[in-house]
Amino acid sequence: MTDLSDLAPAAWPARAAAAWPALPLLVALALWVYATRHTDVSALDDFGLVSALHPTFWAGLAVLTAGFWFTVRDRRRPGAWSLAYVLVLLVMERATQALLYPTPLYAWAWKHDAVIDHLLTSGGLQGADRLGDMAVYDQWPGFFAAQAALVRLLGVDNAAMYMAWWPLVSSVLLLLPLLLIYRTFTEDRRLIWTAVWLFCVGNWVGQDYFSPQSVAFALHLGVLAVVLRRYGRSGGPHGRQGQAVWTVLLSVLVTAIVVSHQLTPGMLVVTLVALALTRRYRDWVPAVTTVVIFLAWCLTAALPFLSAAMPDMIRSIGDIGANVETGYGTTPTGTGAVATSWAARLLSGSVLLLALAGVVRQRVLRHRALPLLLIAAAPLPMFAASSYGSEMIFRVLMFMLPGAAFFAAAALLPKVRTLAADAAARDTAPPSPATRARPRRVPLPALPRPRYGVWVPLLVLLAGTLAFVPSYSGKDRVNYFPPREVALVQQLFDQAPDDSLVVAANRNYPLAYEQYWRVDHYWFLDDDRRHVDEIVRDPATVLARDMAAVEPPARAYFLLTRGQTANSEMNGQLDRAQLDRIRESVASSPAFELVAENDGGVLYVLTPAS
């Protein structure tokens, strides 16, 4: 018989204390699962997913944020707990929509699926003589060619089978280069993981969807990680030996970026040039390598597109006001759209203000982590380069975020450490004789007592985490296409003969670019505003005249869907009354014949007699 007095005391309390971070994780996951099972997305309003979510979702986010904050502040906790919290955060942020919506989000994601389908169908790249404006995707085919290969490898019909999960996948891909970048300057796990958390909640721009930008951004961070860790004056643990190998790796990453996306190489060039101007990274190999590869592609494969676009690009240089304004058709309209737009602005503004506070408050970071400050500031000159389809302000914010999140995290923490400062302290403070004789075990610091230095940063972190949801999902009424709407549009392309024309209000509907190599499209809200007003005054007559040039056996179709109406209303184009008038005018006109109708929209065809 065992005497209980012989057992080691406090075994179970110690284990329980070591495993307590699992409790908030499990509670947050349970609340999230419950919320996804009790959220109805069949009738979204102007607040998108925000007003549809079950309240337990918000409770789960709050529990997760609080658990993360108290876990990451405890130096005794291994980094695996912080990683687990970040992964659960990404699941709650990016996988919720994939579970709730039966079809993929974003008209642009459907467009990219059509480009992949074109590559699989044609078996090769084609020029503007066959594809018109869509040939630009064949001039930057990297992402689409890789996805076409993945579709073949997985044996699925198309990329739509998995692209709903792409936001989660692409966000997880960012973690490794982000951690490598931050660990270049500090081993303070509190600073590293708080910065990663702020990056995840501050990255609301939405470029993580199924797009070339999502992969190009991850590769962009990969290039920065290689440069920061292997091209500094220290050159890593082996100095500058073997740098040729890293240059080859750098060239591969840059080539993958250049052949996949138009804007990211430009952002990468300005960032690498900014780093090369510093004393620590005064090595021009990365910047020169990137410029050479970028120019080589622009002067060869991408030359047809750039030749046509160059006049407009030159006119936009230096016009900062025009480059940052949104313009007609991209202005939030309505209570929900305006509220979510302001939530996004306040979230980005708060991260940038926190970053500024971190620079001022943590003096050691201004010197030891100066490259990250340059990474945050380097994209700003791109405002003077182009409007990038009224999206430049969003792209600049996204490329600033890796550096800004690091300094924002420093503002929420007490005194932080950097690798350079730790090394300098070890060099200037020789060990005492007693220390040399027998290394002493340093006692772990006690948990901080509750005070404003703990609770105020927690409230800031919680506010940012909650604000991510309306910033990221507040426009889901525009971005979500119910199955009935998808079926209606699919019916159109199943019956449309070659060289047919599809006329729609705007391009915000699923399959908008389906079979674009054989079916043409015309979105009348993209036209001159005077012509739009003419359509509103006499819809059926003007539309019939615009569509009359289509020659048999091709047909001319008029399509108006729920997604087009939502996009037009929420972005300041035409309101519901005007669109209903257009629909009623077409329905009552003998020039049009009804083809299909359901709660997702209507489809008409211009009669041959017309």
Q: What order do the strands of the largest sheet run in, or round the barrel if closed?
A: 2-1-3-5-4
Uncertain runs: 1-5, 235-239, 433-450
Structural class: mainly alpha
Q: Please tell me what the overall shape is.
A: globular
DSSP, total strands = 5
Can you offer a commentary on this structure?
- There is one protein chain.
- This protein has 610 residues and is mainly α.
- Helix content is 61%, strand content 4%.
- It is built from 31 helices and five strands.
- Helix 11 packs across helix 12, helix 11 packs parallel to helix 13 and helix 19 packs across helix 22.
- The N and C termini lie far apart (100 Å).
- The N terminus is likely disordered.
Topology:
Blueprint: H1 11-19, H2 22-37, H3 49-52, H4 55-72, H5 79-100, H6 107-122, H7 128-131, H8 135-139, H9 142-154, H10 166-173, H11 175-183, H12 189-202, H13 212-230, H14 243-258, H15 264-276, H16 285-298, H17 303-316, H18 320-324, H19 335-361, H20 363-368, H21 370-377, H22 392-412, H23 419-428, H24 433-437, H25 452-473, H26 476-479, H27 483-495, E1 501-504, E2 520-523, H28 529-537, H29 539-547, E3 556-561, H30 562-570, H31 576-588, E4 592-598, E5 601-606
Parallel strand pairs: 1-2, 1-3
Antiparallel strand pairs: 3-5, 4-5
Helix pairs in contact: 2-4, 2-5, 4-5, 4-25, 5-10, 5-12, 6-9, 11-12, 11-13, 12-22, 13-14, 13-15, 14-16, 15-16, 19-22, 19-25, 21-22, 28-29
